[in-house]
Amino acid sequence: MTNFPDGFVWGAATASYQVEGAVSEDGRGPSIWDTFAHTPGRIADGENGDVADDHYHRYAEDIRLLADLGLKAYRFSIAWPRVIPMGSGAANPAGLDFYRRLAETCLENGVTPYATLYHWDLPQSLEDAGGWLVRDTAERFRDYAAITHAALSDVVKHWMTLNEPWCSAFLGYGNGEHAPGRTEGADALKAVHHLMLGHGLALQAIRSPETTVGIALNPAPVHAASDSEADRDAARRADGLRNRMFLDPLLLGKYPADVLEDTGMTEWFAQYEADLPVISSPLDFIGVNYYCPQTVAAPDGPISAPGTPSTLPGSENLVTVDTGLDKTQMGWPIEPGGLRDTLKMINDLAPTLPLYVTENGSAYPDEVTADGRIEDTERQQYLEQHLEVTRQVVEEGLPLKGYFAWSLIDNFEWSWGFSRRFGLIHVDYSTQERKLKNSALWLRDFLEA
């Protein structure tokens, strides 16, 4: 590989509920993930994030390990219920103090902090009041963002408002796979709007000459299984809900009319056109969380009843097609070229807007050998392939400014519990011992070179 340009950001990422633990310490309030994870049947292995990686107490060790790998940036998320336990009202000083200590430890180790304000841990009290289906949550998010930024802006200069609002809306309120576990059909699009509004309000509240503010999305290429009219329409529908429903309001100041028509939500969204200038407030960058593309087809016949819980409200019967690509343990097809396609998709809409890969990684069933090594050859190959595409994209002239591996350490993988490991660093959950995997050692050598 040739050298990347000076100033290209190399980092790794985590998320608060997945790593912190300490869910009842220092005034933290309950989140929707605390409730969801303690509901029988919701988590694959019956586990929860009460302890997770104990990052709340071990953050200094984890940041030193990150720095020792040659990484210069740490993307972490701030837990809203740790800062404002009930979702609104006065801040919790102990919560803000934790994130100050974390950011200061980054800086002491030559690591630049990148903070995400919302990585899915909504305060439970706000969910009890309607969650992202109601407008008030967006306004409370603005208040939380302003309080957090005011307290930490001297040590954190790079901010992201939301992480993957597609997941929050369609996994949280569409098919119920994620917290809060609701299945609201087309009403999940109301959550989309309030998340987008919350982003815009927060961005306006924290923008300053000293900081950069963006958002982390999970767009992906959507392909039709064939050139038939039915399959091309299936791809249009899936692309609309996965990509255009978020990119269009952010970058074009409008929602895709065909998606609103498909879902029967045109009239509801028409009431809130005045929100679009807020949602499309100029961004400093967009973060891309890339894992895999999707190939879809129209079904030969009905395969589910209308209204079946789905991430595709109004289009529940679309079929995802297996194209024969190798897959990670998550069942996600491996297509490094899809990263280029995703970045170009955004660049076509906003040619000068800086881009970051804010998540990219793979889960495999890692095993520790008798001599203590973790030989995760597949993860190393995954990294090599995607970093080669990253290099090509930079050489092609796209404004890609950085790459964050997902994730720094193994962690609580949402509805999969601890049964899926994405980390560069292995965690023994019984002892909390950290150990570098071979993929981490490879990445360290790559960065040194």
TrEMBL record:
Domain of life per record: Bacteria
Annotated Pfam families: Glyco_hydro_1
E.C. designation(s): 3.2.1.21
UniProtKB keywords: Carbohydrate metabolism, Cellulose degradation, Glycosidase, Hydrolase, Polysaccharide degradation
InterPro entries, per the entry: GH (IPR017853), GH_1_N_CS (IPR033132), Glyco_hydro_1 (IPR001360), Glyco_hydro_1_beta-glucosidase (IPR017736)
Catalysed reaction equations from the record: Hydrolysis of terminal, non-reducing beta-D-glucosyl residues with release of beta-D-glucose
SUPFAM superfamilies: (Trans)glycosidases
Entry's family note: Belongs to the glycosyl hydrolase 1 family.
PANTHER family, A to Z: GLYCOSYL HYDROLASE (PTHR10353), LP05116P (PTHR10353:SF36)
NCBIfam families: BGL
Protein's UniProt name: Beta-glucosidase
High-level lineage: Bacteria, Bacillati, Actinomycetota, Actinomycetes, Propionibacteriales
